[in-house]
Amino acid sequence: MIYLELFLGFLQVGCFAFGGAYAAIPLIRDVVLSYGWISEDMLADMIAISESTPGPVTVNLATYVGASQGGLLGALVATFAIVLPAFVILLLITALFRNLLKYPAVQALLRAMIPCVIGIILATGLWMIWRTAFGAPSALSPDWRTVGLTAALAALWFGGKAILRKTGRKAPSPVWLLLTAAVSGVLIWGV
Amino acid sequence: MKMLWRLFACFFKIGLFTFGGGYAMISLIENECVDKRAWITHDDMVNVTVIAESTPGPIAVNAAAFVGYKQKGFWGALVATLGVVLPSFVIIFAISSFLERFLEIRWVASAFRGVRAAVGLLVLDAAVRMIAKMKKDAFAVVILILSCAGVLAVDVLSLRVSTVFFVIAAAVVGLIVFGVQRAVKGGGKG
């Protein structure tokens, strides 16, 4: 029953993605890969598309995966499931438990869960970079053009941000990085 | 009724005009709901940012539900959330029907090969930003390193362990440490 699977899969993501879009990406990756809904490459493409289209990245990803598996109803179910926990928890906090986050037990939970989520995001970023450049660990097949491009983009992005910060300007939008990468891709792999 | 409509329209606009979600959205919500309309105060906005960071789910949904609830209770929260989600939903659903064929076009496929190299960097960048803001006591650093190493091991060895497992394990450790600390304090008093 694909609709139930979509609902449960994205409900799980919605319940555990502390800290916004990038916290949800490792969880979404888990769910879509374990059900075999979309491939790792397709997921990376979708993350880029979600960054470059309006709206929350998580909602965009849920809508796309839902649509690809179950059409309009699938998209509705997945989007509903990913939004539901955030909506309910926020209502509970604002309406009933105004001080929920101040309880020592809740603080203790968050003090452990937030570094854990950051660790997961860090690992996922490193892993995605490695996998795109060098292939799956079972079949190492380095793609040197991707390795070079990744290194160049990393230097440009992190270096550029450091320079902008020093001169007191705001960090650039990720869309610029994605655009640069897309143009480089066309130049490297051709039209 | 008019207020519900205004909430919907305001958050629809926010959903339509913020790229990248999350923090980009926070500044637009502040501009629309604090500066322009005075629906909530600046302090409310700071609070909702803290709550959004400490609760699961998209920050935009957290903020929309909060502002909507403050204005019109449950229905306000519902309408604002619908408004903020609807533009993404419609746009992505429209794209989804032709995306796979679009990606087969030669130059598009080349562009996306380049883009894939950047996506991992964006995820890494998000982690780096969160580490910079995090409180870096020994407990947090140990948990961060353990979860990072654990997830990498799962990926490299292609194990079937969900990342949710790590979050739950961290929660359990957090509660145990909390319990022990309280017991030690209680013992000290008695």
Distance separating the two termini of chain A: 41 Å
How far do the termini of chain B sit from each other? 59 Å
Low-confidence spans of chain A: none
Determine the structural class of chain A based on helices, strands and strand pairing: mainly alpha
The helix tally of chain B amounts to 8
What's the domain count of chain B? Answer: 3
Mean pLDDT metric of chain B: 86
Q: How much helicity do the residues of chain A have? A: over 70%
Query: Total domains of chain A, how many?
Result: 2
Q: How is the quaternary structure best described? A: heterodimer
Determine the structural class of chain B based on helices, strands and strand pairing. mainly alpha
Calculate Rg of chain B over CA atoms: 22 Å
Strand content of chain A: under 5%
Query: Biggest sheet of chain A, in brief?
Result: none
Topology as H/E string of chain A? Answer: HHHHHHH
The count of strands of chain A amounts to: 0
Which stretches of chain B are poorly predicted, pLDDT < 50 over at least 5 residues? none
**How would you describe the shape of chain B?**
flat
H and E string of chain B: HHHHHHHH
Task: Explain how this protein is built.
- The complex is a heterodimer of chains A (191) and B (190).
- Chain A is built from seven helices and no strands.
- The model of chain A has no long low-confidence stretch (mean pLDDT 89).
- With 191 residues, chain A is mainly alpha-helical.
- By secondary structure, chain B is mainly α.
Task: Write a concise synopsis of the structure shown.
Chain A has 191 residues and is mainly alpha-helical. Chain A has 7 helices and no strands.
Keywords, please?
heterodimer; A: 191 residues; mainly alpha; 2 domains; 80% helix; globular; B: mainly alpha; 3 domains; 0% strand
